[in-house]
Amino acid sequence: MPxxxxxSLAAATAVLLGATALTACGSDSGDExxxxxxxxxxxxxxxxxxMDKVAALWNAEHPDIQVTVxxxxxxxxxxxxxxxxxxxHKGPDLVQAEYQALPTLVSNDALADIAKEVQGVEKEFAPxxxxxxxxxxDAVYALPQDSGPLMFFYREDxxxxxxxxxxTTWDAFAETARALKKKAPKKSLTTFSANDxxxxxxxxxxxxxxxxxxxxxxxxxxxxxxATKKVxxxxxxxxxxxxxxxxxxxxxAWNKALDTGEQIxxxxxxxxxxxLTTAAPATKGKWAMAPLxxxxxxxxxxxxxxxxxxxxxxxxxxxxxxxxxxxxxxxDPEALAALVKESGIYPAATAAQTSxxxxxxxxxxxxxxxxxxxxxxxxxTTAPAAWGPNVNVAYTAFKDEFGKAAKAxxxxxxxxxxxxxxxxxxxxxxxQGFEVAK
Length: 438
Prior knowledge:
The chain is of the alpha+beta class.
């Protein structure tokens, strides 16, 4: 994404959000908080579980800066609440924000540029993750908190049983899917699911897609760019020929397929062990993890599925103190260990990805002792992402349009679905008053 500033973003923005009732709004960091009579008081809106316990560690060691965590809903609800609070100048000091929400929050003047306050912190994170908090410019609108690098998870025992080799390229992945069908027609390597656009976004990211870019006062939507078309054609082709399944994830049927070995692999993110523990409990210790297949042999890139950041709001009257807490939260070894233990996150800070609570493999993958060592190497290769101000609209359109394509099981339906998602995204930006390149 080209250089972006709040001024250029705001010039292109006329976001029309419906009014949302403010609940638990307002920062505790009023003018009186900075007086010599008491500590600075900061409010932090976050949805991750156990964040209050992590903040308690900070509070115990920093009597001059006290942080109160207010638990929030996640996703679009929180984004709307933050924007509404910012318009009323009643926002908290800090917020937990998903990477894809940052452009929307910046364009609504909800987040402060903390570049001066966090100088030198960039080296703690993989470049592809750091870029998501700067929007490609010199400003820093948040600090990376957790990430979800994509990987390939597979049933190690069934791969051996059917004589399959772990694919290192997507061409090999397709051949593996076909080979399994020949040997065991009732089994599938994996499924194409349309009920979570995050996976498809990460796969497109790995291929080099840039769904939103920005020049001057104009957004360009590249949801149907060449990289994304390549990903669409690949998965649509596999579904059309019956080489893989077409059922959605996270359903009882999907859980059963994983647990019984009807599906023997899953392209997912580093947090997959937690999902598999619930979805396929009978197969504990039978899975293994490998890097994501590449489009060209020898390449080394992955995409991401999920992840969030810690941002300081424009309403904070204690920007420096808030930034200091954000740096501690996302780079201090004690804080990161607590985030892993209490919040169950995979930290974005590279040093924390193989230490502390992550020094040992997840129980579900006890058969792969180097799980987190491999994961950390993969995380370093995360490709840059390009988010825009209406990710939620694009994701909803993906679920609707690609859901239809998965049922139709034709390559043409997948191509049409991609075009429909692009058109819906562009039309929404137009409707909201953004300048959009045609």
